[in-house]
Amino acid sequence: MNPLLQRLHPYPFERLRELTASLTPNPALRPINLGIGEPRHPAPPLVMQAIDEAAAGLSVYPPTAGSPALRQACAGWLQRRYGVTVDPATQVLPVNGTREALFALAQVVVDPTRPGATVVCPNPFYQIYEGAALLAGARTAFANSDPARNFAADWRQIDDATWSRTQLLYVCSPGNPTGAVMPLSEWEELFALSDQHGFVIASDECYSEIYFGDEPPLGGLEAAVKLGRTDFRNLVALTSLSKRSNVPGLRAGFVAGDVRWMKAFLLYRTYHGSAMSPLVQQASIAAWGDEAHVEANRTLYRQKFAQVTPRLAEVLDVALPDAGFYLWAGVPRRHVEPGDDVAFALGLLAQYNVTVLPGSLLAREAHGVNPGAGRIRLALVAGVEECLEAADRIVAFTREHA
């Protein structure tokens, strides 16, 4: 057995299942799950129609690089969304969702034979970053979120010695779970560090189309162009249709960026056997080419967050995020043991049958603290009425234990 498997940590949802195994939720209330970030708005009909029309494609092997039409659709979306021009033939690759690609990219980038090979991650973070790093033979280093800056990662916590060993940096903007969006100045700092130390930046942007202000979130490729880095040196951006188009089961996205890394990634994927189904390719072309369903989806989230956030703010430390579909809420310090997010989540489930994810399960202790401790992640993915009912239960539970 691969010994690196022993280095993996249990996934947050597995840990939550273990914590709640002996717990009986209140049977008088229907269960409401705000723990999993799984979009539950309806999938757009145009995607379903494209799948139906592409059934004949199952009789052929799909190319790993994807069809020219799909790569062009992805490149076209980058141009319309970010004003970024890429070569569809050399700078774009379809992937089976960002989760698959985030993991695979580390296997391409990391050279475990180099002493101290390191992957830097934000903290809290999407757990795939850590698993990908460990299975690639690297160690991890974490930049904690900073509450004073809307929970953006504090990259300055990483010292020069660590940066010098870093081969890959994962960034997530808009962030999971905090919703923070990286400004251009932060990108400039990271690009300078990448130039100095030679590491690759993997920009996870799967929440980019759910935002609450007038200006859409800045993307990594867009930031590079604004800073004159039109070759996208050591930069790979990853995005997906899961959140944008409410099709998490489709497993469809793409990566784009530095020609050199796209070539290496394609070589890896050729052997890895990760070609996208022709049906999924046709559905993706339809989805990337349409913005009407994306705007409607964004409107639903805006309406939902506008109603739920102030209600929860009556009892929790919570505010509207920059983007994404999570609320990153602090539990009351006067509740159970100071800021105990796990106890809060267990009590809420037992008494009010609402599932939330304890923030400490999404983070690692780094720089002397666990930056997720005392907070909970709430995924507002269900309909407005269900989310409002959950909010009312959370308010009632919190006030009972004040």
TrEMBL record:
The residue ranges of the Aminotransferase class I/classII large domain are: 32-391
PROSITE patterns cross-referenced by the UniProt entry:
AA_TRANSFER_CLASS_1
Which SUPFAM superfamilies did the record assign?
Answer: PLP-dependent transferases
Transmembrane parts of this sequence = none
User: Could you tell me which CDD domains the record lists for this protein?
Assistant: AAT_like (cd00609)
Q: What is its EC number?
A: 2.6.1.-
What domain of life does the UniProt record list for this protein's source?
Bacteria
GO MF annotations for this entry?
A: pyridoxal phosphate binding; succinyldiaminopimelate transaminase activity
Q: What's the cofactor?
A: pyridoxal 5'-phosphate
Per the UniProt entry, what are the Gene Ontology biological process annotations, in alphabetical order?
lysine biosynthetic process via diaminopimelate
Keywords attached to this Swiss-Prot or TrEMBL record, sorted alphabetically, are: Aminotransferase, Transferase
Cross-referenced Pfam families, in alphabetical order? Aminotran_1_2 (PF00155)
The family assignment reads: Belongs to the class-I pyridoxal-phosphate-dependent aminotransferase family.
Under which name does UniProt file this protein? Aminotransferase
Q: Which organism is it from?
A: Rubrivivax albus
